[in-house]
Amino acid sequence: MSQEFQAPRGTLDWFGARAGLRRAVLDAAREVFESAGYGQVVTPTFEDTGVFARTSGEGSDVVRKEMYSFTDRSGRPLTLRPEGTAGVMRAYLEHMTRLPQPVKVWYEVPMFRYAAVQKGRYREHYQFGVEAIGSDDPAVDAEQIGLQRRWYERVGVRGLQLLLNSIGDGRCRPAYLQLLVSYLDEHADELCDECRERRDLNPLRTFDCKEKGCRAVMAGAPKITDHLCEECAAHFADVRAHLDARGVAYTVDPGLVRGLDYYTRTAWEWQWNELGAQSALSGGGRYDGLAEQLGGRPTPGVGFGAGVERLVLTLEEMGAGPATQRPLDVLFAVLADDARPRVHALMDDVRAAGLRCDAAYGGRRLKRALELADRRGVAAVVIVGDDEWGAGEASVRDMTTGDQRRVALETLAEELRR
Question: Tell me, what's the pLDDT at 278?
Fold first, then answer.
């Protein structure tokens, strides 16, 4: 019989060893960032479409091509979350402006983008993201980058490269964009159709093009780091000083830009080049003008998003095994039918005592139960057959030595815990 339904294109099912590795990656992230005062935030899976259309920019690929948007039964335009920062800023403006500043949060949520499916690129993907809203201190930018390094080291990622840039702000970037557009016009015949379109919509995005001819053109383009205003240059210098003090190695890449319009000043990206076209493990940056785009007061912020699937894939490509899941301590083999309700209730008591246990369900053959215990690496098997049940006892077999002893059911949980 053929499988009638399959997971939608660009989505993944997580189970078994990969699910364990995924959880280990997220557990490490939570521990690292909570040690620095970041707490969890959970925002809706869908928002008013304007939250993303207004902040990401009408010319961005996200808004023009990738959003999953729909109208609900009341005629409201809604969009499944394509990125995390805008929704968190909306929640901040609605609920958190009176909290101690900066407000430091993390999230692990699904993102939805209708994009070309590639290795490490999915239409539903999970991100671990971090935002710090309410401070323009460059130390916060460097703190997030340094914590990311600690996270990646903790889960065993090696050989990463950190790219760093400043893309200026509303004072210095407009003049730079004029220079860039003039340069693009001089080389229009050498650019692909998409880059000529980006020239009108978002000139900075021309640096993202992967076409060989466009990359050659952009290598000679004016560098934004040569045109920063005094304040942006000082901010960028301070970020680098904080990273230098932490011993975080980086490469300044004047061509590194962000794909959304709300970014200002610091931009960074962690890459593992052996992933190929999808080498970026995470992208982050400062967004000091985002709150105003959502109708709030000027409020600085900085954050990043890291794709969980891509990080798991990187670990697998590096040869990392799945996260070791602690095996069961005890398997219950209840062979006497009358004993099943009582002994399964005792199994709950054993779990409450701190032991991991399960049962060999649906069978009355001891041999199969012992084979199952061996396959699952269980340390001990509790056997309750007709003889044990009649005596109010259980047999406990040590799966390492093969030794077996009888234990009263009333003291079973205590005996097993000992």
Answer: 62
- Comparing CA positions, the residue from 202, 269, 182, 267 lying closest to residue 232 is 267
Closest CA to 242 of 329, 302, 176: 302
What's CA 188's distance to the chain center, in Å? 38
How far apart are the C-alpha atoms of 241 and 145, rounded to whole Å? 13
- Three-state SS across 212-267? HHHHHHHHCCCCHHHCCCHHHHHHHHHHHHHHHHHCCCCEECCCCCCCCCCCEEEE
Q: How far apart are CA 224 and CA 254, in angstroms?
A: 6
Query: How does pLDDT run across 185-209, given as a tens digit for each residue?
Result: 888 888 888 888 888 878 888 887 8
Tell me the two tokens of residue 277.
């076209």
As a whole number of angstroms, the distance between CA 393 and CA 409 comes to 5
- What is the identity of the amino acid at 204? L
Sheet bearing 69-71, strands edge to edge: 46-48, 77-80, 69-71
15: its two tokens: 């189970």
Stated pTM of the model: 0.84
Per-residue pLDDT of 57-114, as tens digits, reads 665 667 777 888 999 999 999 999 999 999 999 999 999 999 999 999 999 999 999 9
Alpha helix (H) residue ranges in 46-137: 49-56, 61, 85-91
- Domain 16-172+228-317 sits in CATH at 3.30.930.10
The residue ranges of every structural domain in the chain are 16-172+228-317, 330-417
Please, are residues 66 and 114 in contact by the beta-carbon 8 Å criterion? yes
Q: Domain spanning 330-417 has what CATH number?
A: 3.40.50.800
Kindly state the DSSP code that residue 274 receives in the 8-state scheme: G
Q: Round to whole Å and give the CA distance between 236 and 141.
A: 10
